[in-house]
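From the shared-data thread, chain only:
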Amino acid sequence: MTPPQLRVGVIGVGIMGTDHAERLAHRTAGVVLAGVSDPDTARAAALAERLGTTVHDDPLALVASPDVDAVVIASPGFVHEEQVLACLAHGTAALCEKPLTMDDASALRLVEAEAALGRRLVTVGFMRRFDPEYAAVRASLLSGDHGRLLLLHNTHRNRSVPHTDFRSEMIVRDSLVHEVDASRFLFGEEVVEVTVLSPAPTSHAGEGVVDPQVALFRMAGGGLVTNEVFVNSQVGYEVRFEAVAERGSLTAGLGSTGVLATSVTAGGGRWGGVVPDDYRTRFARAYDLEVQAWADAVRSGTTVGPSAWDGYAATAVSTAGMASLSTGRPVQVDLAPRPVLYDEHH
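Structure, as tokens:
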């Protein structure tokens, strides 16, 4: 018997929330867009009219609505705790965009609240796990054909970011957090130490902003991860990695012909093809697969994707990374005991 359509509301309709609302309305099977909410009521109303849905002035009212089965949370991170707690209180499944919260203490509170319920309702939007290339590399590593993963080299570049919003700490908390989760995903273990180093900053960064940044992760099993995050590269949106194992390496994010060179030209960045300006272009397929998998899991009463624990662990590493950013020294990552709810065999 086919489960009924899943009625999904969207909280926060900025760039990412609007993208998700359009995805739910037009590209996700078994789903109906059941409402949107945003402090910018005019923007929310315009989107609702265009997509044929309703507007809720209060996001918590959307969560509590009898006409909503699940929500996508795409609001700013500082309101995530309240909104996720509301979802847990109402038994409403939530796909929460990263970061889960802005600090590890509040993220841990969400983990503990969900563990107390005894069932998973929260999925965190680390969409790279659904990217076909990331998933293929993970599967190849799990097969054992390449032996143990030893080193991971991550590159994460944006063309530019708003100088008023993206300070040095934001680069760690909002950009590097993706590398944290990708590293945990590919290694299958936790980050135990982080060091954030500060090269001479680009002239395109805002005053006092450390950009680019180089972060080093030490993994629980002894592996090492190098991360370059450069949010004002002027070229475009580039995300790629090389995983170096005992018997070979695997590289993703190069495109069909491989990276030849990147440069700034009148037409933008080039790599023997076009370097996309936007993360929504680079990971369009990953977002579609992520939301469809989440919707299918909610409809069938199962779970899929990164959990609240994954969100907490990534936030804890980012918190340690911000401490290291101020000193340049290694900082240990101390995680709370992992509840049984998040054991993969549970």
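The longest strand covers residues 149-157.
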